[in-house]
From TrEMBL, chains A, B:
Cofactors named for this entry: pyridoxal 5'-phosphate
Ranges where the Tryptophan synthase beta chain-like PALP domain occurs: 17-305
GO biological process, one term: D-serine biosynthetic process
Stated family: Belongs to the serine/threonine dehydratase family.
InterPro entries, alphabetized: TrpB-like_PALP, TrpB-like_PALP_sf
Stored PANTHER family: SERINE / THREONINE RACEMASE FAMILY MEMBER (PTHR43050), SERINE RACEMASE (PTHR43050:SF1)
Keyword terms, alphabetized: Lyase, Pyridoxal phosphate
SUPFAM superfamilies named in the record: Tryptophan synthase beta subunit-like PLP-dependent enzymes
Key word 4Fe-4S present: no
Origin: domain of life: Bacteria
Protein name: Serine dehydratase
Amino acid sequence: MAFKVTQSDIQAAHEKIQPFIHRTPVLTCQSINEMVGAELFFKCENFQKIGAFKARGGINAVLSLPEEARSKGVVTHSSGNHAQAIALAAKMAGVPAYIVMPKTAPEVKKKAVAGYGAQITLCEPTQQSREENSARIQEETGATFISPYNDYAVITGQATCAKELIEDQPDLDIIIAPVGGGGLLAGSALSALYYNPEMTVYAGEPEGAKDTYLSMEAGTITKVEKPSSIADGLLASMGDKNFEIIKELVKDIFLVSDEEIVAAMRIIWERMKIIIEPSCAVPFAAILKNKDVFAGKKVGVILTGGNVDLAKLPF
Amino acid sequence: MAFKVTQSDIQAAHEKIQPFIHRTPVLTCQSINEMVGAELFFKCENFQKIGAFKARGGINAVLSLPEEARSKGVVTHSSGNHAQAIALAAKMAGVPAYIVMPKTAPEVKKKAVAGYGAQITLCEPTQQSREENSARIQEETGATFISPYNDYAVITGQATCAKELIEDQPDLDIIIAPVGGGGLLAGSALSALYYNPEMTVYAGEPEGAKDTYLSMEAGTITKVEKPSSIADGLLASMGDKNFEIIKELVKDIFLVSDEEIVAAMRIIWERMKIIIEPSCAVPFAAILKNKDVFAGKKVGVILTGGNVDLAKLPF
């Protein structure tokens, strides 16, 4: 099957965004490897600009807009990291950014978005309220809507993360990412296909927001009413552009509970001394829960972000 | 003045311990540089084995013991990181480790020491109780006492940290470390002298444990009664072997309050997404408090460790 995002699209996006992003390190941890019985290679996007991989997709999407559209600004809705990504990208491009954020988003994320000079509109923490608010702003301002995930330029930008991981560690057997709306997972699966087609792609998903799991079972997009999880970055519903890639290329979705997410997050904080947000701990929680799948393998784990509210830690 | 620890001692120690330690990364952070008005290069010993620089001195001290002494084991007292270092070094050498820890030491540190198979004796959180307990164990077992800091092999091991930092960043104007007992500071000052003598050496110290500050003013070791600070790794009193180096080579000691330490720690957690313990935030707190001293300079900052008790965070 041919996908709308090609290998040369990913190559071109990587060249375009490279001056604006960090090439994040790949870390390993002996005591975690011993605990799991596998070799894990953590791609540390918590050290990325804005503290999350979303800088990649956001910057690629804004820089890919035609000049005229870009000058009217960009609008999006996001629980936080995509919001920061679009705010940063718009600031770089010198255009206005209008950001719709659920009022439940962590304070640290709201503050960061405001710090980039974006205009914030707070909404109810539902998909409907997010979409209504951004549609209204789009109409009022003429700004272009940039989906947090259901957008080929965003998917292409996110794909550069797995591309770098494969370049640094070409002999991986497996790559695993978390899944919310599906932008990172679709991008990672495409980079796996183009740069290391032998590799198996898995995802971790919170039990309370298991729309991807259900969609894979049903073969068609299946929503979850009122998704809820401590992994606040993974509550969005799967996009159709993402699902057409994911259903072909991703082997399995592993579900994990909030308790398992917090336990996994705590192990990474304590053993690796790095700060990751709950959403980011989901793939590692999935590995801990399914050790037999990963035993003896070289596993690339995408650590997606580190934007936690230190005043509201789950420990 | 000639010092008892020479450049070739540091070179030899580095070769001896290299197979057992990590060469830790040097990280930078643009937003922190903008905040301070200087270029900071953070030497991340929070990523070191046992989560702290003390692995260097501990391993060097144990490996430097004559065979016969080593076989009877080693004993020490420490609020935590040196304890882990000696426990790890003894485990590597296959000899017993007897560790005296104040009962107030963080749980995470006690657990880690026990995990290396060391025998723990809990004591009162005073210098006297620490020393009495380790003297008794020394007598009972014939084990060799290894001071957390007042020991040339320990100082020489700690010196390898600044040596690596200078190798990676040869054009530093300043190096700053925290000071407790003085092992790291003395070692850092010696590496500065031998590997980049143009560099100025400073230290940060908690106001509640300012014995080094007072000792520098008086020109002789001056103790503080009942030292107290959130920086639990810096409560020990300056050793005479350390002070003979520090009084010659360190330009100034900057005092910081517990409040300033927590604020500095929080900035590093939020901006750099790495976990550091309160003691480790002391030099950065000193920089934030004395921006004029550091303005426009290239500053090496030793981040000493990341062993915090997540159940007892100060945020």
